[in-house]
Amino acid sequence: MCGRYTLIAELDELAEEFGLTDVGGLSLPLRYNIAPTQDVPVIRLVDGAKQLDSLRWGLIPAWAKDIEIGNKLINARSETAAEKPSFRSAFKKRRCLIPASGFYEWKKEKGGKQPYYIHRDDEHVLAFAGLWESWAGNEDSGPLETFTILTTDPNELMQTLHNRMPVILERDDYDKWLNSDETDKDAASALLDPFPDGLLTTVPVNKRVNSPRNDDAACLEPPPKDEGEQGMLF
User: Fold this and answer.
1) What secondary structure does DSSP assign to the chain, as a single string?
2) Considering the entire predicted model, what is its pTM?
3) 38-74 confidence digits (pLDDT tens)
4) What CATH code is assigned to 5-231?
5) Which residues are catalytic?
């Protein structure tokens, strides 16, 4: 799965990577510990052009009665998303890209679960494949636009940490994924393979990242040698 990630890229870097032509007036704070239910940048097609918008992480289907369902739908299995009631409409009509600098995963080790940070060797921005949805809201909440991150089988590197990993798209596939008018369901599904081995690296990081309240560069620092000291950070 993918339950935490970072976005520490500059706005002009995203504009160049994703072909964004209108980013005037937008702000992009550095995020070191993005967590579910938070509003974060997502790229989608609007009137045929790529647009950077802020959506809530945790997809709420249009038919949902309660906002809480989004807490359970932060990820969608790429193998079944096209058929599942919660995702099939979005898979057909509302695909998106989620820009990220890297993501976290936890591994059971002596002394408890150790967080690891996974990112490209060259520090280049990543693009997770996602789906977005509009929810009309209810008496307790107004309208919301939400998204989920697709997951797939792990590559060789990720097998040491987890049995799933986020779908990371190659740059040449961005438009194919986004353009639901020209890309049929089978062609879209063909883009959702594990990311190639050899392009990612993983490093242990501070357990400060365990708490979503901590969202600063210290989350990426190496684990302190004194585990007792580390335990006081969150």
Assistant:
1) ----EEE---HHHHHHHHT----TT-----EEEE-TTSEEEEEEEETTEEEEEEEEES---TT-S-GGGGGG-SEEETTTTTTSTTTHHHHHH-EEEEEESEEEEEEEETTEEEEEEEEETT-PPEEEEEEEEEE--BTTB--EEEEEEEEE---TTGGGT-S-EE-B--GGGHHHHH-TTTS-HHHHHTT-PPPPTTSEEEEE--GGGGSTT--SGGGGSPPPS-HHHHHTT-
2) 0.93
3) 999 999 998 889 999 999 999 999 999 999 999 999 9
4) 3.90.1680.10
5) 2, 105
